[in-house]
């Protein structure tokens, strides 16, 4: 195995370990807070605070990734801070402490995502990006399966605090993986999307001119915002609905919702990486958007704990495809601009508006009208996302040889 191949192997393992770290407690947060007497709308509010913090931090995080050469350090510090913020909840799950924890987790999680994307692009380059994104996502989802299975078992026997311990262990493992990725294997100009043959190693235009003038990028961001407005609350809502009926153990059921989705995401991500190499990203994004309203309809109509199987299988399809297609599509649109990571950060910021508002919206509807009505609202929003994308986005903008930034800026 040559040196760069070794770095890629450790990059894959890093994605495995970060699966249990970068999003904090994730779906376990809702059932953890319910166990401490929190109401559905209060849980939604505190999740929304974290989402807003992440939303505000994501574009600066992309700019940071474009600017710094210490990308490994950024990921490492982020991992440590996410775990520290989550451990605060064990000390005091009050509203204030929980809000501080979620705000910190949202900010750091926003930094880790672009940093991993920059590391990946810097090692493999534009041509190798689709396949490597597929491998990254597959390893990430495998890590989610591993950690969720272990968290469910540990939580069943020792309670939800065991989930916190597991997260800390995975954070330490991620630091070990980072240390094995060789700095000299990372081309930091390529990592930000520069094409030295065309630009001489300097960005062609100002950041905001590139981002604001790219219609394909803005349409992608709008579709993703609507998608996450319908999607972000669906998994926590599914877990809360089952727990509120007393039909499932909180830790075990939440773990199962994660495991089912992640098992589907692994082959889906590998398929998406291979498909994007040949056909581009438009159809992958379309299928992902279509899976969400189907998921919402099943969750709203089938009032049973067993609904988690089809609901989370559809979630696996959508998330598995978007995990590859979103960063790959942004990299394709902005290739040559030198602003790929801030572009990904900008799209993520806009989609985070939807993700931040989703838990609060769903929590209010669930409290006043029931969980079925909440799922219906989320499904309607998902259909709107699909309509926007199908009617307005053009396939050529996300094709294997899509338009570079210079062509998109008028």
TrEMBL record:
Cite the InterPro entries for this sequence.
MFS, MFS_dom, MFS_trans_sf
Q: State the UniProt keywords alphabetically.
A: Membrane, Transmembrane, Transmembrane helix
Instruction: List where the protein spans the membrane.
Output: 43-61, 73-91, 103-126, 164-181, 217-239, 251-273, 280-302, 308-330, 342-365, 371-392
- What SUPFAM superfamilies does the entry give? MFS general substrate transporter
GO MF annotation list: transmembrane transporter activity
- List residues of the Major facilitator superfamily (MFS) profile domain: 1-397
- Any Pfam family: MFS_1
- In Swiss-Prot or TrEMBL terms, this protein is called Permease of the major facilitator superfamily protein
């Amino acid at each position: 195995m040559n040196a760069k191949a070794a770095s890629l192997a450790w990059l894959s393992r890093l994605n495995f370990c970060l699966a249990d770290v970068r999003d904090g407690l994730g779906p376990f947060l809702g059932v953890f807070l319910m166990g401490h007497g929190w109401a559905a709308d209060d849980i939604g509010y505190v999740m929304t605070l974290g989402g807003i913090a992440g939303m505000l931090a994501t574009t600066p995080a992309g700019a940071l990734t474009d600017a710094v050469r210490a990308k490994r350090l950024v990921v490492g510090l982020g991992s440590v801070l996410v775990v520290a913020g989550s451990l605060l909840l064990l000390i005091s799950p009050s509203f204030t402490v929980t809000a501080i924890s979620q705000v910190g987790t949202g900010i750091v999680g926003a930094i880790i995502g672009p940093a991993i994307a920059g590391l990946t692009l810097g090692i493999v380059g534009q041509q190798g990006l689709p396949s490597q994104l597929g491998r990254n996502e597959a390893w990430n989802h495998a890590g989610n399966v591993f950690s969720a299975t272990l968290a469910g078992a540990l939580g069943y026997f020792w309670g939800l605090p065991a989930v916190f311990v597991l997260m800390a262990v995975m954070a330490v493992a991620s630091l070990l993986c980072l240390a094995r990725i060789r700095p000299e294997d990372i081309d930091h100009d390529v990592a930000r999307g520069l094409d030295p043959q065309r630009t001489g190693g300097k960005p062609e235009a100002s950041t905001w001119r590139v981002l604001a003038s790219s219609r394909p990028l803005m349409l992608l961001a709008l579709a993703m915002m609507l998608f996450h407005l319908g999607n972000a609350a669906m998994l926590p809502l599914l877990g809360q609905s089952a727990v509120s009926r007393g039909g499932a153990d909180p830790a075990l059921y939440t773990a199962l919702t994660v495991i089912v989705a992640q098992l589907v995401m692994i082959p889906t991500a590998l398929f998406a990486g291979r498909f994007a190499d040949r056909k581009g990203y438009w159809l992958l994004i379309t299928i992902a958007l279509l899976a969400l309203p189907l998921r919402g309809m099943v969750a709203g109509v089938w009032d049973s704990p067993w609904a988690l199987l089809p609901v989370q299988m559809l979630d696996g399809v959508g998330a598995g495809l978007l995990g590859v297609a979103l960063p790959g599509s942004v990299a394709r649109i902005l290739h040559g601009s030198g602003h790929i990571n801030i572009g990904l950060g900008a799209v993520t910021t806009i989609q985070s508006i939807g993700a931040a508002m989703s838990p609060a919206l769903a929590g209010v509807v669930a409290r006043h009208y029931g969980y079925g009505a909440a799922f219906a609202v989320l499904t309607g929003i998902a259909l709107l996302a699909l309509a926007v994308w199908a009617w307005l986005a053009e396939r050529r903008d996300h094709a294997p040889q899509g338009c570079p930034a210079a062509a998109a800026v008028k």
